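Sequence in, structure out. First:
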Amino acid sequence: MKWSDLNRSSNEILAVWPQYRPLFERWFMQELVDNGELSPFWRDRMVPGDNDTIFSDQYPDRETAISVANALNPSLRQALSLRSIDATVKRSLELKIEKALQAKLRLQDEESLMLAEALRRHAHENRPDAAALKLEPQSERYRQDLAEQLADMPYLKVVKVGRSNNRWSHYLLYLRPDGIWSKPYYATKKNAQIAERAKIANGFDLSASDHWGKTKATIRQLLLPRANQLLQLASVQRMLSDALANGERVLVSNGIVFWYEPDGDIGWQVKETSSAGRSEGATIWKEGTILSTNHGRLVVLPYVKESGEHVRGHTKNGPGDGRALPRHPDQYVDIPFSLYDGDLMIGLFGELPYE
């Protein structure tokens, strides 16, 4: 197929963002396409080459890919602002773009945080010696490759391996209950994704092949005690003290909420974010506030529906928690919140000093 055969020149591109593909170990740029009366959709971004050829827009690392996206998105926003379309339609598109980009960035930040904590939990674990690994005879050729990956992540139970003649030909090895690594299984797009998810899930002693949304929900619960430990770090105490001095009482980053409770000498505590119904990935209403009428452990952030309706945030308990302890009406609080970059929480989990 040639570039001219794609017939993409008439498409209105609203935004771009990279997505990692484990099978190829590269970041592929995706583009958000205006779909008229229907919702915009993501597709792979293709670029023209010499002689009417086509290339996928791909990058070797996340930093480069995101840098390219951040450089291109402002010009795409500018192009939308100059379009001669109904103002209501234009505003709706702007909200949909922000929602789509927020969802992708929050997903990547959250999984980076989970990976950082998985690595931290096993940082002092003994690394297996390459010669001591037990493998099926068909997997012997991958012994060194396997050992190198286990040196970084000794908790892995499924590993993607394989390199021949300076070209990747991927296979998966599975750790059997008897402690022997399986014969190699050819890597497909689906099981390469499982091997990538194992870098997170196996670090929490969870299966990488289970429902990924449920697995991450479990990990969020496991992260809360760790987040509570952060309150004891001098660097975090300094950060929260600075925030309180600036009038900030709710700080949000990567699903973790630092919440200041002035009554009862409680001070700073940790809660977690929760979506309201179908609002997961919805555009966060940054000017909105959180009305807390109870002491629930979950915080639903204020968000904007695609219709433009603004929904105020609130606190609640999760399923199985029981009814959240209500506040006295005199103690209802309507609190603004601050969104912190996802890298902040990842850094805190690594106990990096607060600058």
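Second:
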Amino acid sequence: MSTQAIAPPKTKSQALRSYDVADFPALTGLEEDWRFTPLKRLRGLATGTPDGTGLIKHEYGQLPPGVTVSTVPHDDPRIGSVLTPFDRISALAHGRAGRSLLVSVSPDTQVAEPAVVRVVGGGADGVAYGHSFVEVGRFAEATLVLEQTGSVTLADNVEVDVADGAKLVLVTVADWAPDAVQAQHLKVRLGRDARIIHIQVSLGGDLVRQFTTIQYAGRGGEADLFGLYFADGGQHLEHRQLVDHTEPDCRSNVSYRGALQGADAHTVWVGDVLIQASATGTDTYEINRNLLLTDGARADSVPNLEIETGEVAGAGHASATGKFDDEQLFYLMARGIPEAEARRLVVRGFFAELLDKIPVAPLRERLGDAIEARLLKAGA
């Protein structure tokens, strides 16, 4: 496949994109996109060694009517039609994934129940490569949950194609085992008047790096991206978004919240929003909030907004990182609530708005319990 490059790139929308790994130089850690990532902990994901000896499997039970799950060969014309890799690991994953998981929602279907697909790691020894393609037909509406569990060293790409007038609620949960390492690129293409609501939850793993890209392919597209992450001691959780507004009258809203506790807990959030000259009438906002629960934790938060047209409906960004609000704690403790319980109430309230956006009650409750267990473990 051909390589597209503009050098030197002025924006990330103009960066090198290629399916050929050889087009991407070896990573050094000095690159802007990789300066926060501890490359030594990637276990060969950046170099492609060892070559695909790791294993993942997909599990799913009874699917609701209108949703099908299958596998397709990597030469299926849909594969690569949404996502062209723009970094070395994504290109490695594209070339070595083999067969791809295909999740299809039939056009004009209103899917009443959520479809749940699990990606299960078969062990952290050896590198695994994965590829998934989600297609939502015209005017369809569906909820899809992608759960990721088990031990793994994984590089994977996820392509999501939401056709004209369709709506997808996508919940992705990275609840990996403590030794898991993942580098993922997820890209969504939105048709005319299409909408994506993506709720991204990251709790498990040793190092998890997830990059989400939104591409608008028609007027009137809407993207709501919500993220919830909780890093424990020694964990590295990294989330990056690229929302590339190229079409008129589209909207995006990005809201990520994270909590950190324990020595060397590290989170990274980088939000890039581009409003190109053709994207008149754009309405966009992004915010990241981080709550430091203990000393020794570090949160890096970098919002970026680039605007090439003055004809926008709205554009803004914000970022905040801090410790517990002493006034909140005092208010609760003054009413007889012990300090440890008051701290847990503050954290639950911090995450409540995003947890409530998960439309699957059992999953929402399970994630709330997992956050509570972490707080109890740390004695918060």
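Remark: The first strand starts at residue 56 and ends at 59.
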